[in-house]
Amino acid sequence: MTTTVIDLIRHGEPVGGQMFRGSKDDPLSITGWQQMVAAINMDDRWDVIVSSPMARCRRFAEQLAEQREIPLHVDDDLREIGFGEWEGLTAEQVQQRYGDHLNRFWQDSINFTPPGGEAVTDFYQRVILGFDRWQDRLAGQRILVICHGGVIRMVLANVLGIALDKSFTGFAVPYACRSRLQVDQSEFGVFRSLISHQP
């Protein structure tokens, strides 16, 4: 039996606050750094860190990897979903400019993609491909993944069998939220379970 423990932590608040950020590469605000520091415990033990390439994830990951003297891997597949023309806009601004588009996205994100954005099905496939690759490559280790709310939603939807059309609205993933997964691999197959989810 090989057991892998994977902690997923969403980045803290970025500069500019709440908005559809996607590929907009804002760094963490001072509050965001404080949120991330508070999310990490002295008794946390990881063998390796995997991070999204976005500044709001990567800069904290780099500092933590240096402090803990553990390897850091950066994976482009773990970046946030692209929101296209919505990026940089608040929910209110999207509603003002695009009418009922936001409601349509929340109600049917599978079939409605923001103008110029990334389809949720493509996003899901990209994230799971990247996540599974690290799960296999780092099997038996304790892994910290620093990433995004959308990425965590895709991973948890995959592990828990949540329908993709419910994945964006099915559970809360606030800034610096932590989720722990355990992966047990044996001759009987692979068993993945959610151990904790702490918004």
UniProtKB/TrEMBL annotation:
CDD domains: HP_PGM_like. The active site is at H11, E80. It holds the Pfam family His_Phos_1. Substrate binds at R56. One of its GO terms (cellular component) is cytoplasm. GO terms for molecular function: phosphatase activity. InterPro entries: His_Pase_superF_clade-1, His_PPase_superfam, PGM_Phosphatase. This is Histidine phosphatase family protein. It comes from Marinobacter halophilus.
